[in-house]
Design a protein that fits this description.
This protein is an all-alpha fold and about 160 residues long. The protein contains five helices and no strands. Keywords: Membrane, Transmembrane, Transmembrane helix.
Length: about 160
């Protein structure tokens, strides 16, 4: 393997490490922010503003501190899939010469979310909790894909 080829593969490995390391962390923060905000909105609609803000802070801190291993278990495969899609786009397309594409990352994350919802048969027709779960998982995928791409552009 020549020197430029080796650097290319090392860069690709670095991008995947960023997606695998940062993606589930950002996704966990986003999911628990969604949960906290949904609980806080319920409290705030009844006039309890201080309690609502406490709920957001508690949900995010609890989620990040105590359920982060679960976030990595559930988020590692989507993070690697989106990272591979971004790298594939960069290597195979003429536009790839411009660098890693946040747009491709967001589209890949959205497609991954639709595939998971379709294959799991998730119904969001009635329950508020199902809407919160679907919204939080979609937001987690999209936000973490965008953040990881931005970090990888700066670092790699």
């Amino acid at each position: 393997m020549t020197e430029p080829e080796q650097r290319g593969w090392m860069r690709s490995f670095g991008v995947l490490v960023i997606f695998a390391g940062v993606g589930p962390l950002v996704g966990s923060i986003v999911v628990y922010a969604w949960i906290g905000v949904s609980q806080a909105l319920t409290a705030m609609l009844t006039g309890q503003w201080a309690q609502g803000l406490e709920m957001v802070a508690f949900a995010v801190s609890f989620g990040v501190l105590f359920t982060l291993p679960l976030g990595y278990v559930l988020g590692l495969v989507p993070a690697l899939a989106v990272g591979l899609a971004v790298l594939w786009w960069e290597r195979r397309s003429a536009r790839g010469r411009q660098g890693l594409s946040a747009r491709v990352a967001v589209v890949a994350a959205s497609i991954f979310w639709v595939a998971v919802v379709f294959f799991r048969g998730v119904s969001i027709s009635g329950s508020w909790d199902a809407w919160i779960g679907a919204g939080s998982s979609f937001s987690a995928l999209v936000v973490s894909a965008w953040v990881c791409t931005r970090i990888a552009r700066r670092v790699c």
